[in-house]
Specification:
Blueprint lengths: L9 E11 L8 E4 L6 E4 L12 E7 L9 E7 L4 E5 L7 E5 L6 E3 L8 E6 L5 E5 L2
Antiparallel strand pairs: 1-4, 1-8, 2-3, 4-5, 5-9, 6-7, 9-10
Pfam families: IL1
GO biological process, one term: positive regulation of cell division
Protein name: Interleukin-1
């Protein structure tokens, strides 16, 4: 007799953290708003690279993710407790969430699952991100 047991997918943080900037296909870079904890996409002129938001890209592993699949990651703003998150509303959008504790393991259904993105390499230095949710 065999029983089917459903396993809740979990994602465990690795020791790999990369520092990066994020921009779109139009070369608009994410910068912090001076008036609120928001990010804006703007085109920066030469010499203004200090305004770019730097992210810590933390990688995760999961037994439920197949080999050669997209890499699960979290994107936290360097030197802060702010992370990019995707809302799961009827019209999903990106928001900043403040997280004070460690993010060593994130399970499906956790409140922090919206912080996880699948990263796909789409070129030499290009990546795309899709919410795990």
């Amino acid at each position: 007799r065999m029983e089917v047991v459903e396993v809740t997918p979990s994602y465990d943080k690795t020791s790999t953290t990369l520092q990066c900037n994020i921009c779109d296909q139009f070369k608009k870079t994410l910068v912090k708003s001076s008036t609120s904890p928001r990010l804006m996409a703007v085109t920066l002129r030469d010499g203004n690279s200090d305004f770019k938001v730097r992210f810590n890209l933390s990688t995760y592993v999961s037994p439920s993710v197949k080999p050669n699949a997209s890499q699960p990651v979290c994107l936290g703003i360097s030197n802060s407790n702010l992370y990019l998150a995707c809302t799961n509303d009827s019209s999903p959008h990106l928001v900043l969430e403040e997280i004070t504790g460690p993010l060593n393991t994130i399970k499906a259904g956790d409140p922090h699952e919206n912080l996880l993105f699948f990263r796909r390499e789409t070129g030499v230095a290009n990546n795309t991100f899709e919410s795990v949710k």
